[in-house]
Amino acid sequence: MNKLGMGMMRLPLLDENDFTSIDYEQVNQMVDAYMDAGFNHFDTAYIYHEGMGEKAFKKCVVERYPRDSFKIATKLPLFVITEESQLEPLFAEQLENCGVEYFDYFMLHNVSGYTETAWKNVDLYSFIQNKKEEGFIKHIGISTHGNAEFLEEILFMHPELEFVLLQINYLDWEDEGIDSRKCFEVAKKYNKPVMIMEPYKGGFLADVPEEAEKIMKEYNPDRSVVSWAMRFVANLDACVVLTGASNLEQLENNIQEFKNADPLNDEELKILEDVSEIINSNITVDCTKCRYCVDTCPEEIDIAKIFDLYNKEKILNKDGNPWSQLGNAYLNYSRLPDVGLASDCSECESCIEECPQQINIPEVLKDVAKTFETEGYGFTN
Ligand code: SF4
Ligand code: SF4
């Protein structure tokens, strides 16, 4: 069986509108609960929490635990790389941020069409291979949101890669856009251990439509909805499943679910196919809340946040009632200082290439504006 990793992408915040306001006290508690449960794999990235993710790892793990008691995985931010000269300073900064002398796992972050400026123009693979030879990295790999064909090309060209980090969950397994199953099979074909990210699809699989929850509960009333998602990934032939818990309670539940994750039987796998069908007919935007798009937006639209509200609105307010909690939440969002509304989108399209889920963000924002920015929700022109 694989291990549970602690993904540090969506840490708890003191101010939900400020992604740098990490609640360190709670993160310390999460780290302790996670280590006490017998796990030790932490996953972060240069860009998480607007540059504070690696520093949070240092503060909450490195400064509190001996180096040989944990493993750290982080990622080179391909999004910002345009030339070779950036690599050495960036890598040195990442070591400094994390407070370590070497990384256990180091990845090129999201090798895909979205980061081709970096991997086409700069020899990233030789750089990480050299860093490994110099002793600063134990294992090199990539994370990717590319499709199976793309992954195969990379693994064929770069046999030096030792592992891959892939987005896998029961909903994306057969999804043609995400290509989870096929990517997983390609990794296996090249004998690369797989680390799994997004087992709950950014929390979405914890909050499935009522109709889907009903068939899971009818089959087994004692199993939570998230346990199905965890059992699906925990029993794949992978090496690590990253939980991206955003508070202590979620993390503790994830640990329990992981420890109790017995394999799904054929009947249960069939139920997950039915559940996926129901969810797919309900999901409006396939957003995982990774926030890669957010920093690029000149209008300061918190795309991840409002897509989340929009998805929930579409599921919970199917009848289009004139008032809804989500509409109210959107109104509250609109009152925050320095945030853009969906209708502020200028269609500059700079966000589109950042989105690993290939969402046509400005198009969706038009629908978001139509849904929320109405008189019924307190908006006036
Ligand atoms: S297209 Fe709209 S949402 Fe995307 S970056 Fe431009 S203004 Fe922001
Ligand atoms: S729209 Fe795309 S890039 Fe932005 S948060 Fe969602 S999945 Fe991530």
Taking all residues together, what is the mean pLDDT?
Answer: 92
> What class, by secondary structure content?
alpha/beta
Number of helices: 14
- What is the CATH class of the largest domain? Alpha Beta
Measured by DSSP, the beta-strand proportion falls in 5-15%
Structural Rg = 21 Å
CATH level 3 topology of the largest domain:
TIM Barrel
CATH architecture of the largest domain: Alpha-Beta Barrel
- As for the number of domains, it is 2
Order of helices and strands: EHEHEHEHHEHEHEHHEHHHHH
Q: Enumerate the spans where pLDDT stays under 50 for 5 or more consecutive residues.
A: none
Q: What coarse outline follows from CA principal-axis ratios?
A: globular
Q: How far do the termini sit from each other?
A: 57 Å
Tell me about the largest β-sheet: 8 strands, parallel, barrel
Helix % is 40-55%
Structural descriptors:
381 residues; alpha/beta; TIM Barrel; 2 domains; 8-stranded parallel β-barrel; 11% strand; globular; binds iron/sulfur cluster
Overview of the structural elements:
This protein is of the alpha/beta class. The protein folds into 2 domains: 280 residues, Alpha-Beta Barrel (TIM Barrel), CATH 3.20.20.100; 84 residues, no CATH class. It contains 14 helices and 8 strands. Strand 6, helix 7 and strand 7 form a beta-alpha-beta unit. The protein is globular, with a radius of gyration of 21 Å. The site of one iron/sulfur cluster (SF4) has 16 residues, from helix 14.
State the gist of this model.
Helices cover 41% and strands 11% of the residues. It is α/β, with parallel strands linked by helices. Helix 6 runs parallel beside helix 7, helix 12 (303-316) packs antiparallel against helix 13 and helix 12 crosses helix 14.
